[in-house]
Design brief:
This protein is α/β, with parallel strands linked by helices and about 160 residues long. It has a single domain, classed as Glucose Oxidase, domain 1 (3-Layer(bba) Sandwich), CATH 3.50.30.40. Strands 1, 2, 3, 4, 5, 6, 7, 8, 11 and 12 form a ten-stranded mixed sheet that branches. The protein has a two-stranded antiparallel sheet with strand order 9-10. Helix 2 runs parallel beside helix 3. It is globular and about 45 Å long. The mean pLDDT is about 95.
């Protein structure tokens, strides 16, 4: 499935009004997959990536994990081992409102990754956080079950599939 986010904006904003939401241009692109899309699964956590491992251990076919890490720049929430796990279990991609690490290795893995930046330090692991609730960052609310589209031009969210 190929798409361009500018084309999706042009096509669906006119037809659907406010159902296509554009995330503020705040993310850097990582991972071997530059274009990705899927149904949203959400996590809300802060400097603890225990729930990320749990989510990536599940079947992720057709899904994108959206992590609201509170925008923390003090540790990484995804590293190469988690990216490998996600790719192995079919996840299309991950959007991290926070940092990742092992970016060079992640760039060689067939998964789409958007994150604020990189940080070499790992997170704590206390199994603290929430799953499957609406999270808001970048001027957009991401709800579980909605759809995310990402490419070189940006990230879009829609309440229904666009492709």
């Amino acid at each position: 499935m190929t798409f361009k986010t500018p084309d999706l904006c042009d096509q669906f904003e006119a037809e659907l009004g406010t159902s296509v939401r554009v995330v503020a241009p705040m993310f850097k692109a990582y991972g071997g997959r530059k274009t990705f899309s899927g149904q949203i699964v959400t996590l809300k956590l802060f400097e603890d990536n225990s729930l990320v491992r749990t989510a990536f251990a599940e079947n992720g076919e057709g899904k994108v994990l959206v992590i609201d890490g509170g925008g923390s720049m003090r540790c990484a929430l995804v590293g190469d081992q988690l990216a490998i796990l996600a790719q192995k279990n079919g996840w299309e991609g991950v959007v991290v409102y926070g940092c990742i690490r092992d970016s060079g290795d992640i760039n060689a893995i067939d998964i789409g990754v958007r994150a604020l930046d990189t940080h070499p330090q790992k997170s704590i692991k206390k199994n603290v956080g929430d799953r499957d609730l609406a999270v808001t960052f970048g001027g957009v609310t991401f709800k579980p079950g909605e759809y995310l589209y990402a490419d070189e031009d940006g990230v879009l969210v829609s309440d229904h599939p666009l492709l």
